[in-house]
Amino acid sequence: MSTNARLPISPNQLTVLRIIATPVLLALIYLDQPRLNWVALGLFVLAALTDYWDGVLARRRGEVSRLGKLLDPVADKVLTMTCLIMLVALGHADVWATIIIIAREFAIAGLRQVVAAEGVVMAAERGAKWKTAVIMVAIGFLLIHRPVWGLPVEAIGGVLLWIGAILSITSGLSYVRHYFQSAAKP
Question: Which of 4, 72, 163, 180 is the most exposed place for a label (fewest CB within 10 A)?
Answer without folding.
Answer: 4
